[in-house]
Structure formats: C-alpha cells, structure tokens
Design brief:
The chain is an alpha/beta fold and 393 residues long. The protein contains eleven helices and 19 strands. The chain has two domains: 39-194 and 332-383, Quinone Oxidoreductase, Chain A, domain 1, CATH 3.90.180.10; 196-328, 3-Layer(aba) Sandwich (Rossmann fold), CATH 3.40.50. The strands form five sheets. Strands 3, 4, 5, 10, 11, 18 and 19 form a seven-stranded mixed sheet that branches. The chain has a six-stranded parallel sheet with strand order 14-13-12-15-16-17. It is globular, with a radius of gyration of 21 Å. Bound molecules: NADP nicotinamide-adenine-dinucleotide phosphate (NAP) and zinc ion (2 copies).
C-alpha cells in the first residue's frame, strides 16, 4: 500500500470519429438527417414540488453524439440534495439521474466507437473543456473550467441548454462521455456503478489499496455498500461503521470483516488505530474526529458525502499526531470509470438494488433519507410513459 499513490495513467482516449460506415446488413448506422426527439421524464419543478411527470427536449444527435434509449437509472442521494434545493439554487424544471444504463438508439456521423444496440452507460458528467490539465490527464471531473454535470448544468457546447438527467426515456451525449457496459452483468444492477461505484473506486485506487490493507467504510448506503464490495474485490480487510443496528448482519452478508456501531463508544474505542484508509459516505453533518482516532499512522480519510449543513470542526491534533490525511474525492474520470466497469465485470461486482417504477420515486426519496434502502433504488424507465408533444424542459 502506498498512501497517496497517483492513479495509473488514463486508458487510451477514444479515437476521433470516422465518416459514416455501413453495418453488416448494408444499412447505415447513422442518422443522416437526425431529428430531435422528446423524452418522457420525471423531475422537480420547484424545491418542494416532489417529482412529477415532465417531457424533456433531447437534441438531434450531432456528429459526435450518441442517443441512448435509457433502460435503468439509479437514485443517488445527490439527486435528493439537488432536486430539493439543499445545495442552493437550481435550474427548474430539473430532471435528476446520473446512473444511466441503456442501449444506443442512434449515433452521429462521426461516431465509430458505438453502434445502435450497444449497452452503454452515462455517469455524472456529459462534457468538460477537454483542454485543461485535468481533462488532458483523464480527470475530467476536476476540469479547471468546470465539468458539465449530467443534470442541472449549463451546456455551453449545446446552446447553453440546461442538462436534464436520466429519469427519462432517452438522452443524447457526446461519445467521449459514454461508457461501455459489460454484457455479462445485470444492467439494472450496473446502473449504480456509474456514480456510487466510481465515486468509491476512485479514492480506493488513488490511495493504492491492495490485499492486506484495512479499509473502513462509514455509512452503509448506496456509496457505502459499493465501497465494501469494491474494497473486498481489491483484497482488503473491510470494516463498516454504521449508525444502524439493523445493518450489522447485512454488512457481514456484503462481505465486511468487521462492523462497528459508530454511536457506541466502546465499539469505537476497540477500533482505535486499526485502519489504513476510511471512505466516509455519510450524507448528513457528523463529527469526523472519532474516525481519525481509528486510523493508523499515515492513514487517510476520504470524505465523499456532501451534506447541506456545516460539519463539526476537525481537530488538527488528531491529524498531526499520526500524519493522517483528510481528503475529498469527486466521482472519477471517464477512463477510470471504464476501468471500474471492467473491474466489476471481472470480479462480478454489481449493486444490490430495489427496482422502482415512476410512481414510487417520491416514496423512494423519503425512504433513502430515512436510510431505509438496501442499498440502491433503480428506476425502471419503461414505467415513465410517453412524452407529450411540447417539452417542459
Ligand atoms: P445514502 O444511500 O443515503 O447513504 C448514506 C448513508 O449515510 C446512510 O445509509 C447511513 O448509513 C449514513 N448516515 C449516517 N447518518 C446519517 C444521517 N443523519 N442522515 C443520512 N444518512 C446518514 O446516500 P449515497 O447515495 O450513498 O450518498 C452519500 C453522500 O455522498 C451524499 O451526500 C451524496 O450527495 C454524496 N455523493 C458524493 C459523490 C462524490 O463524488 N463525492 C458522489 C455521489 C454522492 P448507516 O445507516 O450505515 O449509518
Ligand atoms: Zn450520484
Ligand atoms: Zn477541462
């Protein structure tokens, strides 16, 4: 284990597109005079509206675009924060969803790396500047000019339209931000890998986790359960910190080697100086100082949750005495996301999911906030209905 070891160089970027090619049956794969097609969707019209049926405009595929018929979309806690305005002002109407899996329906004339019928995914970003040091390093999520989020972001390469996410029947995305989904995995259970999976995989890899390391996971929700599965697949010894007595047995079923009730001081004291790296996924403000005490010298705590309220202050003494690093981490780059999907295909890792229909979305949000989900809700987009002629967003 090498603390802070940099991520391996990004995988090769997709090659620039070739002109239109023919499919084996002789018909073109591209849409020569592509038309825009609206999508049926669910989204919020205000911070207190809940999720309601909407129709979103989807652009006609441009040369480098891939149009995807969405089959499944995971429900991330970030969707709750965003639609309810917990992260500040939003552009409404807002269709959330950045754990998208579906099949390619049309491609632009310059696309030769995807074809209709391919199983693909889209995560938390649909564009970035492609020129800054972070983009050139394959770390588009840290784009110095601001990446374009999959929903609620101003899309400067597409007429400053506000992006609308994956609780919808289709989406159009530049091929550079489309992932290839392995066919050997359940597509519904793959959807959460596009955010919860990559967000936990990236810091585990950045820290250089390998067999024998002890990984602590704080919060056993969507991100947390993926952190457990991924760290186990990397060969680590995994300890889960949970506030929920009801999740002790469940954590062990997921593969955790130890479970610590974080509200129990005796249980926390027993974990003193036992962990190399902590992945903290808690969605609400909480005190980190008790967790620092569980880290060994040169340990690190990656905070992934982005609570809307202020966190209690960090005690510098807790960091200094054992050279402990306190870091954040944002999703992962496109190449690393593909690497994660391929890793999951090799190790048979997917999310534990509960599939819901459009009519259950609001209840699913409430249950997520109450911690009542094992471990990710996934929307079946076949329940969204058909778009109306006039788009709402
Ligand atoms: P989630 O499924 O709701 O899981 C969060 C877990 O935190 C809960 O299951 C619960 O686990 C624990 N928790 C402890 N105290 C809590 C409290 N007072 N309120 C709510 N949860 C509490 O959420 P998620 O989808 O995994 O997302 C977790 C956080 O990560 C969110 O803030 C989200 O916005 C953020 N996020 C960040 C990134 C990134 O790139 N950094 C990406 C995606 C999401 P126990 O019951 O085990 O205690
Ligand atoms: Zn997310
Ligand atoms: Zn950039």
């Amino acid at each position: 284990m090498t603390p802070g070891r940099p991520v391996p160089p990004p995988l090769a970027k997709p090659l620039p597109g070739n002109p239109t090619r023919l499919d084996p049956h002789g018909s073109t794969q591209h849409a020569p005079s592509a038309t825009a097609r609206p999508a049926a969707a669910y989204g919020a019209t205000a911070s207190d509206s809940g999720l309601v049926p909407l129709t979103v405009a989807r652009r006609a595929p441009k040369d480098d675009d891939v149009e995807i018929a969405i089959e499944f979309c995971g429900l991330c806690h970030s969707d709750v924060h965003a639609t309810r305005g917990e992260w500040g002002t939003q552009n409404y109407p807002l269709v959330p969803g950045h754990e998208i899996v579906g099949r390619v329906s049309r491609v632009g004339a310059g696309v030769d790396d995807f074809a209709p019928g391919d199983l693909v995914g889209v995560g938390c970003m649909v564009d970035s500047c492609r020129e800054c040091d972070s983009c050139l390093d394959g770390l588009e999520q840290y784009c110095e000019n601001g990446m374009t989020g999959t929903y609620g972001a101003v899309d400067s390469r597409n007429g400053d339209a506000v992006t609308q996410g994956g609780y919808a029947t289709s989406v159009v995305v530049d091929r550079r931000y489309v992932l290839r989904v392995p066919e050997n995995l359940d597509p519904a259970a793959v959807a959460p890998l596009l955010c919860a999976g990559i967000t936990t995989y990236s810091p585990l890899r950045h820290f250089g986790v390998e067999a024998g390391d002890v990984v602590g996971v704080v919060g056993l929700g969507g991100l947390g359960h993926m952190a457990v599965k991924l760290a186990k697949a990397m060969g680590a010894d995994v300890k889960v910190f949970t506030t929920s007595d009801s999740k002790v047995a469940a954590a062990r079923e997921l593969g955790a080697d130890g479970v610590i009730l974080s509200r129990d001081e005796t249980s926390m004291a027993a974990a003193d100086r036992s962990i190399d790296v902590i992945i903290d996924t808690v969605a609400a403000p909480h005190d980190l100082n008790p967790y620092f005490r569980t880290l060994r010298r040169d340990g690190a705590l990656f905070q992934l949750g982005l609570p809307s309220g202020a966190m209690p202050p960090v005690n510098p003494g807790a960091l200094i005495r054992r050279r402990i690093a306190y870091a954040g981490s944002l999703i992962g780059g496109i190449a690393e996301t593909q690497e994660m999907l391929d890793f999951c295909a090799e190790h048979g890792v997917v999310s534990d999911i509960e599939v819901v229909g459009a009519g259950q979305l609001n209840e699913a949000y409430d249950r997520m906030v109450a911690g009542d989900v094992k471990y990710r809700f996934v929307l079946d987009t076949s329940t969204l209905g058909t778009p109306s002629e006039k788009a709402d967003a």
